[in-house]
Amino acid sequence: MKRWIKDPHTKLIYTLICGLGICLFCFGNQIFHIISSAGLGYTLIKTNKSSNMPWIVLGANMFYLSSLHLQRQFFDELGSYSLDITGPLMVLTQKVTSLAFSLQDAIDQKKSDDYKGTEMQKKYAVLEAPSFLEYWSFVFQFQSMLAGPLVLFKDFREFIHTDEFPSPLHAVVKKMGVSVFFAVVFIKVTPVYSIDKLKEFEFLWDTTFLYRMFYVTIATMMERAKYYHAWILADAVCNASGLGYDKQSQTWDLVTNVDALGFELGLNLKESLDSWNKGTMKWLRHVVYERVNPSIRTVATYAMSAIWHGFYPGYYITFLSGSVFTSVARQVRKTIRPLFVNDRGLKLVYDFFTWLTTRFVVAYVTFSFIILDFTPSIVLYLRLFCCFHVAAFGAMFALPKLSKHLKNRGTQPQPAARVPEAQKQAQKDTTERVKDNAQDVAEVTKPIKKENEQPPAARKNKGEDDSYYGPKAATKELISHEFPEIKSYLSNSKPTNDVWTTWTMNNAAMNGTPVQLKTG
């Protein structure tokens, strides 16, 4: 798009018209909800000048979204799934609320010279409020209208006003290929491991625990294929239009919503979650995690995510369990991991074990998100003996005691830092060498009293010094041989027959800085 349309005003109109057309084609008169929610947010942003404006916008838009979630859940004749306006409205809520917080961040920066916002708040602060056309073009941005990803307003504005970027052809072809692969997996393989089987009586009561755990893990993995397909395809569409180039990393991953490989190979729960639904994770971090009390930020973030998704019981089971497992995983990593990192073999074993455990935990936590209903989810947890919940709560009580025990014994492990330690040892060796050199220099230049030496008063007429150090040339030869690092200084001095040399090492030399020499 950007290669043929250069004028920013024309780009805004083109983006708005395309987005309106897609919404009308897919949702018909339901587009009214998009206009209503976006209009509500725009009015509040323009009229409310208090510092609480972003929270008011967040509350109002979440209330509107929640009302449609409840309508879909209790009054939708098509059941638990249908193509309705709630999907685009979820993306819209992210856009409007993130814009409100970015505008307030800019106001706070202008008011205070000692602004203490986070790096993300400073990066995405919007210094100039959007115009009417700019706002509605942002709302109906066609590239991410249906399935995301989230594009923050500052990135959208840069997209409109930037013309120069490398060709996205390679990135688009690659992402299209990956998207097609996951589409095939979802169509051909997912039915073999149907998620509906998790509700069947025979599966719950006539199979072994290991089979149930294995099946849940594979079924949830196959279910993720449809999300990979949709999000990677949306990413390719964004790149094809010129949106998504990251100047800092010089890649087309600025608005990437998922890293399938990163999620499936994550060594812990946090690594996996950081690779999943990145746009939503960025939004939650921007509007909740970095703005609430640290003691409740994890629970508050998961709660906001659950409400944003809807009100099916499965969502809340997943997110409440997720908050517990995230906290426990962080505690395990802090206490247990340092025991293994100093040995390469043990670390490989630890990494494999944590990767495998993470696969089971992800499946265990997320199957209720897919099932949605309360009773089938609880029954399946009971048939899995709530094994990971028991382990998590056990770890909550055991790990602090273990950490205290290791600390009292003086064996509290610390993460290895081989490079810094090596640098520290090298610096220590250099300092010791300089100290030794200083002592040797002092020994070499120690005053040598001549036999039958006359008192100082008797030598003053001879133009001699108060001390005898030997001829400068001889001293120079000896020092140059023993200490090459000061040879360059000696080579520039001018020897004379009637001048004697005093070599002194100052305090800076003892700290590893270059030796300073004085001639007298």
Shape: globular
Give the terminus-to-terminus CA distance: 78 Å
Give the helix proportion (percent range): 55-70%
Number of strands: 0
Mean model confidence by pLDDT: 82
Number of helices: 23
Portion in strands: under 5%
Poorly predicted ranges:
415-419, 444-453, 456-482, 493-520
Question: Over the alpha carbons, how many angstroms does the gyration radius reach?
Answer: 35 Å
Order of helices and strands: HHHHHHHHHHHHHHHHHHHHHHH
Structural class: mainly alpha
Largest sheet: none
Main location: membrane
Subcellular location: Membrane
InterPro entries: LPLAT_7/PORCN-like, MBOAT_fam
Pfam families: MBOAT
Tell me what the structure shows.
With 520 residues, this protein is an all-alpha fold. Helices cover 64% and strands 0% of the residues. The protein has 23 helices and no strands. The longest helix is centred in the middle third of the chain and has 32 residues, at 209-240. The chain is globular and about 60 Å long. The N and C termini lie far apart (78 Å).
